[in-house]
Amino acid sequence: MRIKNELAKFVDKEYVSDSMEDRVKYSRDFSLLSPGVPDAVVWPANSEEVSKIVKWCNEKEVPVIPVSSRVHFYGCTIPKEGGIVVDLARMNRILEIDTDNRLVRFEAGVTWGQLMEELKKKNMRAIMPLMPPAERSPLTDTLEREVPTNVVYDYGEPMQSIEVVWPTGEIFRCGSASVNGFPDSKSRGANPSGPGIDFYRFVQGAQGTMGIVTWMSLKIESIPRIDKVYFAPIHDLPYAMEFLYRILPRRIGQECLILNNVDLTTIIAEDMSEDFDELCAKLPPWTLILVISGLLRRPEEKIAYEENFLNQVIKNEFPKMSLLDNLPGFPGLGKKLMPMLRAPWPEGKTHWKLRLKGGCQSIFFITRPNKA
Fold this sequence. Notes:
The longest helix is centred in the last third of the chain and has 18 residues, at 299-316. The protein folds into 3 domains: 2-87, 2-Layer Sandwich (Uridine Diphospho-n-acetylenolpyruvylglucosamine Reductase, domain 2); 94-222, Uridine Diphospho-n-acetylenolpyruvylglucosamine Reductase, domain 3 (2-Layer Sandwich), CATH 3.30.465.10; 226-341, FAD-linked oxidases, C-terminal domain (Vanillyl-alcohol Oxidase, Chain A, domain 3). It is an alpha+beta fold. The relative contact order is 0.12. It contains 11 helices and 13 strands.
């Protein structure tokens, strides 16, 4: 009760709980790691409240576990040593959508479903990983460096600037968002390095251990006017990798991914209990999915240029590659899959990663394809 009373000094008492029912909700995720129960849960409404909570926990040496998502796969939000779960779900405002600078700035509690719906109204979209849960936080995915399906964009990386609360309680802005007058300054937070040291690298991939990120800005893209999706059944994975090494440096395609037959089945199966075994056996071991797109300017010419390049590369250098409008034996798959690649996985529907076994342990790494 003491911890609850202390936290109630920083937020309204209705947003603090030490009930076993609430604590158990945060004791595990969809990973295979052992559960752990926090001592209390607190739901702050803004950065100032987060700062006060973190400062108190630091002074009292109480573990802090930040949560900015409804869905977790890595075990990084499990309170292994008890402590305080700081759930940022109430901080769910989209602060601005700047179409001229192709930026969106949003708080940690915003979900993929919420973000994509608002961007669509502006004819824009976010660069995102493969069909993330609608309830999951794009801020979480970006910090954890989930690999996006888009391989072509006009900047170093989607994340541009962040606000972070350090363990001392200090509120700090990284990148060009740190200049005086933000967000009304000319910089608009459009450079992650900004003036001085690029502190944003300090928190990327740290999974909340270095500080609590309260908002971030991401680069966004316009929704293409024309899309064409191609499939290639893959039986020789190194050969397919060499093909990608040839085309991707030429900035061919938008979405580009290779899925094994198990993952692709969990995505496209209507009924897992009835369809899984048949679909999995029918699919090739690997499938390359490549989307070429025409954006706002001369979309037809862009499509024609990329198709011509692909045809020449296949004809002259990779004759064993076959890029097809549809995967053999799966008519209409392109039409079904294309909108799925640009949207989060539907809320309320078991996520594709969980459809086979009900849970999964994500093993995440970034490397060159030929070392995967």
